[in-house]
Design a protein that fits this description.
Number of strands: 9
Structural class: alpha/beta
Strand content: 15-25%
Bound molecules: 2'-O-acetyl adenosine-5-diphosphoribose
Helix content: 25-40%
CATH class of the largest domain: Alpha Beta
Oligomer: single chain
Distance between the termini: 19 Å
Shape: elongated
Number of domains: 2
Strand order of the largest sheet: 3-2-1-7-8-9
Number of helices: 10
Radius of gyration: 18 Å
Order of helices and strands: HEHHHHHEHEEEEHEHEEH
Largest sheet: 6 strands, parallel
């Protein structure tokens, strides 16, 4: 990765760094992405499984799909890319992980300062009053109700819903003020999250994209690496470590 040599020498321990991730960072943990040929949305209709209308029409179908995903996630382990972020976070004093993923693998890998833009599959909330239910061990395959009478659902963001406002604001503020961003394993298609690499770039950050496939952001990336996250990110870490340690 000769091209990265020019990247590392402009950064130091106080550089502000963002790791922006999508489903692809968990692919090597065995967790399905959404838009790859074998991804969820090649098999299922997102409007049936990830929308308010779909949930109200057939809550058990939706709850079972999330329970199956939760089970697969619980059996999976963080991979070399997640672990590499923990290494990076020891190298750089000021870093944030911004993820579109709901799987919680960043946290399990020991990553810090995590902003979850699309919620967390291990949590539930009331569809009416918003009360949170921490339920990592509960299968939740059938519909339960909150004391207010509302339906209990996964605490994830569905199509047509707003992202958690404070989290989104923090993510944009971080993107507008970072020096370096890694955008890892995201198709960069779902807004507003997909705006973040563009935002960072337009404010002068150096942006490194890691993805086996090109994305709508690739042409603007300072470096766009066609590789798996678990292979590329540890290599970048070695380069940055050699320069900054
Ligand atoms: P996508 O499924 O849209 O994109 C996954 C990306 O990961 C693709 O660009 C792949 O090329 C790439 N990829 C696959 N394997 C990889 C690997 N080993 N290393 C690195 N990259 C790899 O997933 P997201 O961009 O996260 O929203 O999708 C954004 C949102 O759309 C998701 O959060 C979800 C979905 O609908 C909600 O559920 C609200």
């Amino acid at each position: 990765m000769a091209e990265t040599i020019t990247a590392t020498d402009r950064f130091h321990r106080d550089s502000r760094v963002i790791f922006f991730s999508g489903a692809g960072i968990s692919a090597e943990s065995g967790i399905s992405t959404f838009r790859d040929p074998e991804g969820h949305w090649s098999k299922y209709d997102p409007m049936k499984l990830a929308s308010q209308a779909g949930f109200l029409e057939d809550p058990d179908l939706v709850l079972n799909w999330y329970a199956d995903r939760r089970r697969a996630i619980n059996q999976a382990q963080p991979n070399a890319a997640h672990r590499s972020i923990s290494d990076f976070q020891k190298l750089f004093r000021d870093s944030v992980v911004i993820t579109q993923n709901v799987d919680g693998l960043h946290e399990r890998a020991g990553n810090r300062n995590i902003l979850e833009l699309h919620g967390n599959i291990h949590r539930h909330k009331c569809n009416s009053c918003g009360k949170n239910f921490e339920s990592p061990d509960i299968e939740m395959r059938t519909l339960n109700h909150c004391e207010c009478g509302g339906k209990i659902r996964p605490d994830v963001v569905w199509f047509g819903e707003s992202l958690p406002l404070q989290t989104l604001q923090n993510a944009f503020e971080a993107a507008q003020n970072c020096d370096l961003m890694f955008t890892i394993g995201t198709s960069t298609q779902i807004y507003p999250a997909a705006q973040l690499p563009f935002e960072a770039k337009s404010r002068g950050a150096f942006v490194i994209e890691i993805n086996p496939e090109p994305t709508p952001f690739s042409a603007q990336a300072d470096i766009s690496v066609r590789d798996d996250a678990g292979s590329a990110l540890p290599k970048f870490y070695e380069e940055f470590y050699a320069q900054i340690k």
